[in-house]
Amino acid sequence: MAAKLSILVSMVIICSIACAENQNQFTYNGFNGASLHLDGVAKIHPNGLLQLTNTSYQQIGRAFFPMPITFNTSSLSNDTDSLLFSSTFVFAIVPEFPELGGHGITFIISPSMEFEGAVASQYLGLFNTTTNGLSTNHVFAVELDTIKSPEFNDIDGNHVGIDVNSLQSYASATASYYSDREGDNKTLKLISGKPIQLWVDYDEKEMLLNVTVAPLGTRKPWLPLLSARLDLSKTLVESMYVGFSASTGSMASDQYILGWSFNKSGQLQDLDYTKLPPPPPPRRRSRWKPDFRIVIPLVITSLLVMTLIGAAYKMWMKKYEEVREEWEQEYGPQRFSYRDLYKATKGFKGKELLGIGGFGEVYRGILPSSNEQVAVKRVSHSSKQGMKEFIAEIASMGRLRHRNLVQLLGYCRRQGELLLVYDFMANGSLDKFLFTNEKTNLNWSQRVQILKGVASALVYLHEEWDQVVIHRDIKASNILLDAQLNGRLGDFGLAKFYDHGANPQTTRLVGTIGYIAPELARTGKPTTSSDVFAFGNLMLEIACGRRPFEPGRPPEEIILVDWVQEFWKSGMIVETSDPRLEGEYVGEEMELILNLGLLCANPAPATRPSMRAVVQYLDGNVMLPKIFLDDSTHSLIGVPLPNQKSQKDTPYPVSGDNISMNSLSSSESILSYGR
Ligand SMILES: *[C@@H]1O[C@H](CO)[C@@H](O)[C@H](O)[C@H]1NC(C)=O
Ligand SMILES: *[C@@H]1O[C@H](CO)[C@@H](O)[C@H](O)[C@H]1NC(C)=O
Ligand SMILES: *[C@@H]1O[C@H](CO)[C@@H](O)[C@H](O)[C@H]1NC(C)=O
Ligand SMILES: *[C@@H]1O[C@H](CO)[C@@H](O)[C@H](O)[C@H]1NC(C)=O
Ligand SMILES: *[C@@H]1O[C@H](CO)[C@@H](O)[C@H](O)[C@H]1NC(C)=O
Ligand SMILES: *[C@@H]1O[C@H](CO)[C@@H](O)[C@H](O)[C@H]1NC(C)=O
Ligand SMILES: *[C@@H]1O[C@H](CO)[C@@H](O)[C@H](O)[C@H]1NC(C)=O
């Protein structure tokens, strides 16, 4: 009873201080008397200033609103409007030395106020090398990062980033704001010491996350700095804490929060700027005044010595030689040094070899700078021609970010050799699980999860990114499995980038036999539809536990699609399921995946669904159309069920050219799905 009463009392106190009607919203105009949960070096000054870190090195400071916030992720609720949350706060970062501060502040939403094993410096008090990137973190953060950390692909040392479970930002941009008055973007210096306001707004229905910054006193710019499509439903759990984490490394700043407002479901109240504590005192100028009479000769001599050493080093260290050209400068952050990669892979030792693909060998490595595990792919190339375009594409690939893509971290170029550095995938490639006894069998739900993951990555590549990315080599050996057995699409060695709406160009035919769509073999034009063809084959492979093309089999079984189609004709499609599953699968899902696989891998490109439609079918949001076999073209046609909403909602292309309703009525067999 007493305990209950004291909780009640403390809640009343919190509410009165936070001026909030309930726990899912609060406003702090200064933190005087606020009962925040403080951690590390964080403290509240008597004037209400919340200081997360001071200039001591390698420190972490955190502050949380003490009550959990309820995020109902189970359904899209019919709330007054679709806003999941919004927050605004005012911060100030005063570097230890002018121009030299570290490391940054993050606004976090996390299932816990404890961050076990988290380290300071570039990890900002959130993660460590092991925990960074784990989907089990359930941590969402907006980072104000004042140091460029190459291992996280940071764009610069003055950026704002959206982080989901990882410090490798989902999206980031140099701190700047859109000045409504001048109609122009203005750069903001995070470590200016001046108060800056940040807004985070997330719209759950639109899955749109906006981050906006502006100097304190400026109205919220109507154009956000970052506006990213982001599905947080998998990240946020029902009960989450909101707060801040900041860290220092071997460089440090005083990092402050002046005021903060949060609303789980509703419009934010504006902060009352008149009540905010005074901004932090400016740091006294550094006592050390360089004496240029000494410094200049010193710099010149050391430069000279360094040049000499550099020249000698170059001669001796021929084995680390790389090719770098001026135009590569713009892709700077993604460039790794050969030396690091050489060390990481212990000199490309045979023991570190993970596999050999059509385009080169892949080695396991541990980056010396961060202890991060990576996979390094060595591709030999001879021609200088096209290298610039190739590197530009690599730079584009490095910007692709999806949790079902193997992240390309960077590259290195040498004479006759190109090295591509990727995230390390703990479980290796899918084909090892399906077709060899090297790895344990995958159960049905794991298989479905892998397919759904890869499908969503393909929607991202085909439709959601700035450009259309055609992967061109989707197959089981290019699907890599991370520690949680999530399918991640890898190996962009062949990918092609096109502007949306552009006409794909004919290219040298690449791909893998059994996955190459017939029209691609004819025209040489890769399209999103030829990717869908390969994905269809992948679906059949996963369901049947068979490769798409097995020349060793009896003639009618060599081509997987044809074999499955024969069973489909006789209404026994489920008979083709992988015997290794021993009947342990969900019958409806098996039927859906086999049918959908056939539809995707059918010879007429126009009748294949788009990847977005595939995802909708897989998720069960849209019913798979009835499938007919068209006698004249020997291709399958899907006709949306009459009760489905509209063509737009079911982006299923009904081929209009050569198929009339007459030919449908004479179709050989009718298969209805899901009834
Ligand atoms: C930073 O704060 C910690 C803990 O309050 C204190 O021990 C340390 O002396 C402070 N460092 C500086 C540089 O003020
Ligand atoms: C979450 O939403 C669902 C569906 O609207 C509802 O049934 C459930 O009670 C909600 N949970 C909470 C904790 O509000
Ligand atoms: C939301 O409202 C619409 C109509 O107002 C209703 O059809 C739908 O079932 C509601 N959804 C939920 C999750 O309550
Ligand atoms: C990171 O933190 C986790 C959780 O405390 C711990 O198990 C792991 O050993 C840590 N990793 C490193 C490299 O310190
Ligand atoms: C300003 O920045 C935004 C977001 O980064 C960008 O979309 C916009 O085009 C920029 N505007 C100008 C005038 O540079
Ligand atoms: C995010 O910004 C865009 C404009 O870029 C705007 O249309 C959208 O409504 C904003 N969403 C939220 C949740 O603020
Ligand atoms: C949160 O939103 C509700 C509804 O718009 C509003 O009444 C309330 O004042 C807001 N609270 C805060 C702290 O902004």
Automatic annotation (TrEMBL):
Residues 1-20 form the signal peptide. InterPro entries: ConA-like_dom_sf (IPR013320), Kinase-like_dom_sf (IPR011009), L-type_Lectin-RKs (IPR050528), Legume_lectin_dom (IPR001220), Prot_kinase_dom (IPR000719), Protein_kinase_ATP_BS (IPR017441), Ser/Thr_kinase_AS (IPR008271). The chain crosses the membrane at residues 294-313. Gene3D superfamilies: 2.60.120.200, Phosphorylase Kinase, domain 1 (3.30.200.20), Transferase(Phosphotransferase) domain 1 (1.10.510.10). ATP binds at residue 377. It is a single-pass type I membrane protein. CDD domains: lectin_legume_LecRK_Arcelin_ConA, STKc_IRAK. Residues 348-629 form the Protein kinase domain. It is found in: Membrane. Residues 639-661 are annotated as: Disordered. Keywords: ATP-binding, Kinase, Lectin, Membrane, Nucleotide-binding, Receptor, Signal, Transferase, Transmembrane, Transmembrane helix. In the C-terminal section; belongs to the protein kinase superfamily. Ser/Thr protein kinase family. In the N-terminal section; belongs to the leguminous lectin family. This is Protein kinase domain-containing protein. The lineage of its organism: Eukaryota, Viridiplantae, Streptophyta, Embryophyta, Tracheophyta.
